[in-house]
Design a protein that fits this description.
Largest sheet: 5 strands, antiparallel
Strand order of the largest sheet: 3-4-1-12-9
CATH class: Mainly Beta
Radius of gyration: 16 Å
Number of strands: 12
Order of helices and strands: EEEEEEEEEEEE
Oligomer: single chain
CATH superfamily: Immunoglobulins
Strand content: over 45%
CATH architecture: Sandwich
CATH topology: Immunoglobulin-like
Length: 126
C-alpha cells in the first residue's frame, strides 16, 4: 500500500534575490536539493509532493537561513533558532499574509495543497 502524497507549493516574494532554496525535514535539510524558480513578478516557487505529516522548513535566501515569520507554527531547533512548521492533512490549506522585510524587500509565502476542499454553491438572489 503506497502512502498518498499531497501537492504543496511554497512561495516567497524576493525579487532582489539571486538564489532561493527550500530546506526542511522533508529533504533532510539539504542546501542544494530544492532550488526554487523565480517568475516574472519576483516570486520564487517550489512544488513538493509530500505524504501527510508534520514538516519543519526554512528558506535559504542568498545563503541566509530564514524561517517564515508569517507562519503561525514555529518550533525551536537545536541551534536555538526557530523553524517554520506545517502540518499536512487530507483537508490542509495554509496561507500566510504578506509582510515587509528589511532593506525594503517584501515577502509572501503561500502554502497550498492540490486538494481544493468542499465547494459552496452561490446563494440565489431573487
Amino acid at each position: 500500500m503506497t502512502e498518498e502524497k499531497m501537492r504543496i507549493e511554497f512561495k516567497i516574494l524576493a525579487p532582489e534575490a539571486k538564489q532561493v532554496l527550500l530546506s526542511g525535514s522533508f529533504n533532510e535539510w539539504s542546501e542544494v536539493s530544492d532550488p526554487m524558480k523565480k517568475d516574472e513578478t519576483g516570486t520564487w516557487k517550489k512544488i513538493r509532493m509530500l505524504p501527510q505529516g508534520t514538516y519543519e522548513y526554512k528558506f535559504i535566501v542568498d545563503g541566509v537561513w530564514t524561517f517564515d515569520p508569517t507562519c503561525p507554527n514555529t518550533v525551536l531547533n537545536p541551534f536555538g533558532t526557530q523553524n517554520s512548521s506545517v502540518i499536512l492533512a487530507s483537508s490542509s490549506h495554509v496561507y500566510s499574509p504578506p509582510l515587509r522585510l528589511p532593506k525594503g524587500r517584501s515577502q509572501r509565502l503561500s502554502l497550498s495543497t492540490g486538494n481544493k476542499g468542499p465547494r459552496r454553491k452561490p446563494a440565489r438572489t431573487a
